[in-house]
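ugh ok fine here u go
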Amino acid sequence: MKIIICGVGRVGLSIASYLSMQDNDITVIDSNASLVRRVSDTYDITGIVGHASEPEMLKKAGANEADIIIAVTDCDEVNMVACQVAHSVFGISKKIARIRNKEYRDPAWSNLFSKHHMPIDIIISPEEEIAESILQRMNIPGTTNDMELVKGNVHTFGFIATHDNELAGQTIGDLYIANREYDFRIISMIKNNKFIIPTETTTIDDADEIYVICKKTHLMNVLERLGNNNDIYSNNIVIAGGGVIGEALCEHIKNHETLSKNNIIIIENNLDRARHLNKIHKNTLILNGSALDDDLLQEANVGKSSVFVSVMNSNENNILSSVLAKKMGAQYAIALSTNKLYNQLLPDRFIDAIVNPEIITVSRILHNLHHGHIQSVNSIRDTGYDLIEAQVKEDCGIVNVPFKELQLPKNISIVSVHCHKTNKLIFPTSDTEISSLDTVIILAKSSATADVENLFSFSINLF
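structure:
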């Protein structure tokens, strides 16, 4: 597919690097020559220096032959105009734009982005997506990650094995036997910073990060049996950073059925922003100052908080403030960070979860780009693996074929099947057969799109 990406900041760069692995023809446009040069030198991507909304720049980028335009510059208006020009002048069929301003995304003006006005097919707000992702982590305390599948009926979550939860030293097979009344499977592990797909003979070691898949109805029971504390929300929720993400998270918490019962405290360093938040959020305590200041953390009573979330503009400050909060006694600490090195803090529980905004944004865009039977594509942290769910149609080559007869490529595996008729989550054996309309959940390398296409006998080129 021919794809044009407007803007190669962190969001644009993440999208470009991922899509370039899928044998797509990628061209990026940005006014920053050094950013364009870095992308062109690092990936098999064509770079053009210029303003993304100008017709001449889009023409130079190959808009006449493009299938998709993804406009993710830092300016909402540039993104909107780029999509308008792509539609009106070049007839590009799919247009995706990042829109950060809440005023533009107000449902009252939804008609603005219709086909006959400013035609944008998909609107992405990374800040909203990040806030929703953090809220999802808070819904399932003690986990490092959580992915909803099959319309929320199935969850895949990550957590750290420790001697405290008595998992370390067991084999996966022993774990299944001891908990045979619950249907779950361990589909992957991060052991010594390496991603592996385990077998039943694999031994779980202290500090391993384990990814489990199960039905939503069994989720809390499975977490409890695996030793996770899933009942921690009885005190304050502290948010370090009152920017767009922090404010969006605050609003989500207030609208949440369970979390809204907690008091919310926001720590914001900028005085003007703190005053603004104080006017808007009447029932929220706003503290002005640094989230790295011990006295202010004491004033926020962080040591007795249920959750501490750091969403400031600095990776380092987010990590450091979350580590401090955890050390002071916060039960669950979450930090926003794009630096992969900080993931090494997870196994030792210096911090409970790290949310990478780039991975969230890429996953969300891929979710909206899928074609045909693909329901979602979820990146598993920075491992280079994805969890893909696809609905199987009657004409698919794997329907009614026993698993022992399927020729699965080595870099993909079917980890579970959600049965359409029984609503059960099946962990396939050699005799399992997939039926039409079942949902298949696949673990695959991010670069394995072609292999998955061949397996399913229909295109999952995500577009």
